[in-house]
């Protein structure tokens, strides 16, 4: 079987309620449920073609040949699911800085799940696509859908998957993304979260607190209470990063510029009376949740203070889809 090339596009998502810690490292079952916003500006296009003449999977990222054991393992999962043993050529174009805390793995594995499964002859539901994408990267389970998405932690491979909370948003919100450093982070998410689970004395408090945050933010989204959504988002991020500072050995993803931007966002909110709230994932880049009507004013203030930093604006994005190669 030589398949036709199949191309899928998936957008990155930014968690408003974070997942930080796994119950099962192999199956990627999280310690807590999470909620994210899919963004339109950052995405991955991946093309997969199975070819019986290949002696192994061939993976190129942004035009460069890359050895990636995670991709090889993921393709083995797809082959097992499809009952085939043929290797594939995988071409991925990432419109997201990799490993910089901008959820590049979310869009990457969501796109790969869609393209590889279809190229292998599978016709998976979005629920099953979400389950498959999760095996590559936990946050990829959420990039199958657009808008607000919840990843239900579940207890095993069958029950851990994402569901849409609200896909077609009529709410003019968005996110400014401050690219403090697009380089690879020193401590991967995988290593960081495992260190926290094993050593932070505050971890059980995080689980309880984040479960309450998830319930509260879903209610605030339903009620279109932007202030409440922002406050929960910011607080949840700070609690996640506090875990990292409490781990043994302790670590953090902040850079001096990250902290300066966070302080400026608080100043804009308090002194300029423009509602905006920050969140950070496993990296130094600051994401600022705001209303679309305020984005330009916030962007101008930040650009005047941090001229060396690029601030890119993103609106809510759509779920994974197939595109013409």
Descriptive overview:
- The chain has 325 residues and is α+β, with helices and mostly antiparallel strands.
- The protein has two domains: 6-168, Ribosomal Protein S5, domain 2, CATH 3.30.230; 173-314, GHMP kinase, C-terminal domain (Alpha-Beta Plaits).
- It has helices spanning 69-82, 104-119, 126-134, 189-199, 203-222, 226-246, 256-271, 292-305, and strands at residues 6-17, 22-24, 29-30, 34-50, 58-61, 64-65, 88-94, 148-152, 161-166, 173-179, 276-279, 286-291, 310-314, 321-323.
- The strands form three sheets. Strands 1, 4, 5, 6, 7, 8, 9 and 14 form an eight-stranded mixed β-sheet that branches.
- α1 (69-82) packs parallel to α2 (104-119), α2 crosses α3 (126-134) and α5 (203-222) runs antiparallel to α6 (226-246).
- The longest helix is centred in the last third of the chain and has 21 residues, at 226-246.
Number of domains in the coordinates?
2
Query: Low-confidence parts, pLDDT < 50 over ≥5 residues?
Result: none
CATH class of the largest domain: Alpha Beta
Kindly, what is the distance between the CA atoms of the first and last residues, rounded to a whole number of angstroms?
Answer: 20 Å
Might you state the CATH topology name of the largest domain?
Answer: Ribosomal Protein S5, domain 2
Enzyme class: lyase
Domain Diphosphomevalonate decarboxylase-like N-terminal: 10-162
Keywords: ATP-binding, Lipid biosynthesis, Lipid metabolism, Lyase, Nucleotide-binding
Organism: Ligilactobacillus araffinosus DSM 20653
């Amino acid at each position: 079987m030589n398949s036709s090339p199949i191309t899928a596009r998936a957008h990155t998502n930014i968690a408003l309620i974070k997942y930080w810690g796994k119950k099962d490292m192999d199956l990627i079952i999280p310690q807590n449920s999470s909620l994210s916003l899919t963004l339109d500006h950052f995405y991955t296009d991946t093309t997969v073609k199975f070819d019986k003449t290949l002696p192994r999977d061939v993976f190129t990222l942004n035009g460069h040949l890359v050895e990636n054991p995670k991709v090889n393992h993921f393709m083995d999962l797809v082959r097992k699911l499809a009952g085939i043993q043929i290797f594939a050529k995988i071409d991925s174009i990432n419109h997201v800085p990799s490993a910089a805390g901008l959820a590049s793995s979310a869009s990457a594995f969501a796109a790969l799940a869609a393209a590889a499964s279809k190229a292998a002859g599978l016709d998976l539901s979005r629920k099953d696509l979400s389950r498959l994408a999760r095996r590559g990267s936990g946050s990829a389970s959420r990039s199958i859908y657009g808008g607000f998405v919840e990843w239900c932690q579940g207890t095993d491979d069958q029950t851990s998957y994402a569901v849409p909370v609200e896909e077609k948003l009529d709410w003019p919100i968005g996110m400014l993304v401050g690219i403090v450093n697009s380089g690879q982070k020193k401590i991967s998410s995988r290593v960081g979260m495992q260190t926290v689970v094993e050593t932070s004395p505050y971890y059980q408090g995080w689980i309880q607190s984040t479960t309450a945050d998830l319930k509260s933010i879903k209610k605030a989204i339903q009620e279109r209470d932007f202030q409440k959504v922002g406050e929960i988002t910011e607080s949840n991020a700070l609690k996640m990063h506090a875990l990292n500072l409490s781990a043994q050995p302790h670590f953090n993803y902040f850079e001096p510029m990250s902290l300066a931007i966070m302080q400026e966002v608080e100043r804009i909110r308090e002194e300029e009376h423009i509602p905006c709230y920050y969140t950070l994932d496993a990296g130094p880049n600051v994401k600022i949740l705001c209303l679309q009507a305020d984005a330009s004013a916030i962007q101008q203030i930040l650009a005047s203070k941090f001229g060396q930093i690029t601030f890119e604006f993103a609106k809510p994005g759509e779920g994974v889809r197939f595109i013409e190669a």
